[in-house]
């Protein structure tokens, strides 16, 4: 038989229950193997109950002291009741100086106490009882999150000025640096918002016209890391020149915002729009050749997809969609072939290279066809997009002006190794 003897408004603060005639403190902490909260209890006396009922600060301190024992129990273990009981008198019945000395020895969950209103400066100074004079039953989790975020920055030697903090709040990254940034002007002190907007305007002006495309080699929603780094570097350099007082955390949150927004614009745009921007001026047959009427796309697993002129999507868009569907760590070679014209290109994503293949002599009469194969290095996904768009508009001849084409495989391999060495 279990009856609740005393509880507070916050359901997480430990309750006092009577179970089979015995007073016990009951608290939820940790989780079991199924990620469900675990509940622990241990015996207390009437004198302990009296303090818990009248003194919120001591009640919270007891909770903080017992939590490490619950954590030590893990997902299946039993609470060390003897250790828990041994904390009752020192936490609840001792003089404030002795309680402070106890927590200097055993440590305490500062985040828990700060969420419940503890004075941070006094807590950091070891004056635990004095810090808890401002304790509240209700919990403010964001206050504890801010404390931990500031501590992590302090450990890195970062001290935020008012504008630094305002920028991090504007992007929603004050508490969690990995959070996808968004524009949150309402989170900023109105007095600082004009300064924040001046910094944002500097960043926007610096990256005007820059874009971050998709990288289908890594999946349909992957972004072009090279373009991302280029835009981030541009924004950070401009912001540092205009606002040298800002710390790196503030500068990076602004560049992260600009990059995230640029990538989002690309993801929301039709794939044809992206390919058209990557095309060489949109000129059919740039450098010679003719626009394609039928193409075959294949991967390294012998999967094939056909494209015909007049389809609802352009050839380049259809090819990159095929890559986004099929690319994987063990599938990094893709081919575009024009059987009618006897030419094609083979993309080697694992080596950042491409080969163009043209038919010198078609087979027949018992003879094998003869091909000319030439290789070129490629600069990231942007380079691949330009080459693919050029090929589907003008064929292998149009590729002549794009890159250095090396007919000897051994010579090309040496060139690739020189590039990779730096």
Keywords:
422 residues; alpha+beta; 4-stranded antiparallel sheet
Question: Describe it for me?
Answer:
The protein is an alpha+beta fold and 422 residues long. The protein has helices at 46-54, 56-73, 81-93, 96-106, 110-115, 120-124, 128-131, 141-155, 162-170, 193-206, 225-242, 248-268, 271-278, 315-326, 380-398, 409-421; strands at residues 2-6, 15-19, 22-31, 37-43, 294-298, 304-308, 333-338, 343-348, 353-361, 370-377. The strands form 2 sheets. It has a 6-stranded antiparallel β-sheet. Strands 1-2-3-4 form a 4-stranded antiparallel β-sheet. Strand 1 (2-6) and strand 2 form a beta hairpin. Helix 9 packs parallel to helix 12 and helix 10 (193-206) crosses helix 11 (225-242). The termini are far apart. 32% of the residues are buried.
Topology:
Blueprint: E1 2-6, E2 15-19, E3 22-31, E4 37-43, H1 46-54, H2 56-73, H3 81-93, H4 96-106, H5 110-115, H6 120-124, H7 128-131, H8 141-155, H9 162-170, H10 193-206, H11 225-242, H12 248-268, H13 271-278, E5 294-298, E6 304-308, H14 315-326, E7 333-338, E8 343-348, E9 353-361, E10 370-377, H15 380-398, H16 409-421
Antiparallel strand pairs: 1-2, 2-3, 3-4, 5-6, 5-7, 7-8, 8-9, 9-10
Structural class: alpha+beta
Strand content: 15-25%
Task: Determine Rg (CA atoms, Å).
Answer: 33 Å
Strand order of the largest sheet: 6-5-7-8-9-10
Total count of strands: 10
Report the mean per-residue pLDDT as an integer: 91
Q: What global shape is seen?
A: elongated
Query: What's the SSE pattern?
Result: EEEEHHHHHHHHHHHHHEEHEEEEHH
The largest sheet is: 6 strands, antiparallel
Distance between the termini: 74 Å
Q: Helix proportion of residues, in percent?
A: 40-55%
Low-confidence segments, given as residue ranges, are 277-288
Number of helices: 16
């Amino acid at each position: 038989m279990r009856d609740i003897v005393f509880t507070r408004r916050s359901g997480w603060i430990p309750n006092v229950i009577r179970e089979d005639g015995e007073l016990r403190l009951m608290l939820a902490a940790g989780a079991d193997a199924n990620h469900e909260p675990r509940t622990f209890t241990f015996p207390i006396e009437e004198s302990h109950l009296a303090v818990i009922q009248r003194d919120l600060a001591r009640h919270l301190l007891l909770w903080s002291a017992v939590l490490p024992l619950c954590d030590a129990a893990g997902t299946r273990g039993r609470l060390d009741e003897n250790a828990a009981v041994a904390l009752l008198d020192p936490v609840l019945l001792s003089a404030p100086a002795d309680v402070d000395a106890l927590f200097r020895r055993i440590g305490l969950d500062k985040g828990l106490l700060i969420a419940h209103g503890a004075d941070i400066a006094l807590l950091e100074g070891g004056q635990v009882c004095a810090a808890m004079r401002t304790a509240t039953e209700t919990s403010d989790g964001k206050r504890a999150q801010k404390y931990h975020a500031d501590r992590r920055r302090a450990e890195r030697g970062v001290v935020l000025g008012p504008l630094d903090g305002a920028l991090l709040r504007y992007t929603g990254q004050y508490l969690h640096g990995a959070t996808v940034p968004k524009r949150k002007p309402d989170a900023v002190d109105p007095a600082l918002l004009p300064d924040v907007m001046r910094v944002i305007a500097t960043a926007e002006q610096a990256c005007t016209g820059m874009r971050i495309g998709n990288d289908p080699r890594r999946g349909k929603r992957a972004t072009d890391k090279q373009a991302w780094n280029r835009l981030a570097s541009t924004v950070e350099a401009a912001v540092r020149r205009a606002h040298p007082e800002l710390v790196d955390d503030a500068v990076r949150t602004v560049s992260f915002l600009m990059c995230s927004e640029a990538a989002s614009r690309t993801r929301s745009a039709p794939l044809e729009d992206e390919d058209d921007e990557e095309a060489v001026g949109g000129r059919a047959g740039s450098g010679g050749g003719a626009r394609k009427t039928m193409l075959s796309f294949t991967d390294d697993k012998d999967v094939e997809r056909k494209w015909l002129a007049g389809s609802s999507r352009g050839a380049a868009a259809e090819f990159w969609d095929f890559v986004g569907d099929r690319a994987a760590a063990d599938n990094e070679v893709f081919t575009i072939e024009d059987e009618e014209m006897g030419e094609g290109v083979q993309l080697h994503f694992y080596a950042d290279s491409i080969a163009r293949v043209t038919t010198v002599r078609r087979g027949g009469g018992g003879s094998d066809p003869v091909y000319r194969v030439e290789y070129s290095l490629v600069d990231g996904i942007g380079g691949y997009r330009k080459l693919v768009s050029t090929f589907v508009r003008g064929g292998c001849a149009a590729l002549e002006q794009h890159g250095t084409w090396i007919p000897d495989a051994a010579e090309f391999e040496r060139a690739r190794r020189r590039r990779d060495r730096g």
